[in-house]
Write a structure and sequence with these properties.
This is Strictosidine synthase conserved region domain-containing protein. Strands 1-2-3-4 form a four-stranded antiparallel β-sheet, with no helix packed on it. Strands 5-6-7-8 form a four-stranded antiparallel β-sheet, with no helix packed on it. The chain has two helices and ten strands; from the N terminus they run ααββββββββββ. Helices cover 19% and strands 31% of the residues. The structure holds 2-acetamido-2-deoxy-beta-D-glucopyranose.
């Protein structure tokens, strides 16, 4: 029983020493962290109605347009999921310019020499002109572009 008491006293002394060590020599500062105050105007951007002026082009006319490009005459092109290349003329009228049997037409670009370059995820790189469609690249290093 005396051994048990000695152990208990030793344990209490140990815990007290440990607690005093933490209270007086702890590297953790108990100081309250003061964050800089922000002015209310800095956290809330000024309101505006810029997005109210956005005009949706081709709403209801275009099925899944993926990209847009503008040619030198100012006509805007887009390739749709249905395989259509649609052209928006400067006078605001849409034209079904070209139809291609594909539902994977993605990015488009208007090169300086005219026509329209279209990336097709299945068939490769295509060039559309008023005369028709040319496949510019369907393979790279012997591997089919996919
Ligand atoms: C709009 O412009 C295109 C290209 O110049 C022309 O073919 C089309 O007839 C015009 N549409 C209207 C409604 O003026």
């Amino acid at each position: 029983m005396a051994v048990f008491k000695k152990c208990l006293v030793f344990l209490l002394v140990l815990l007290t020493a440990f607690a005093l060590q933490i209270i007086f020599f702890s590297p953790i500062s108990p100081d309250i962290l003061e964050l800089p105050l922000t002015s209310p105007s800095a956290s809330v951007p000024p309101s505006n109605n810029q997005l109210q002026k956005v005009i949706k082009l081709g709403e209801g006319l275009l099925e899944g347009p993926e990209d847009v490009a503008v040619d030198e005459d100012g006509a805007l092109y887009t390739a749709t999921r249905g395989g259509w290349i649609r052209r928006l003329h400067r006078n605001g009228s849409w034209e079904d310019w070209k139809k291609f049997e594909s539902n994977t037409l993605l990015g488009i670009a208007t090169p300086k020499r005219g026509g329209l370059i279209v990336c097709d995820a299945d068939k490769g790189l295509l060039k559309f002109t008023d005369d028709g469609v040319t496949v510019l690249a369907s393979h790279v290093d012997g591997s089919e572009i996919r």
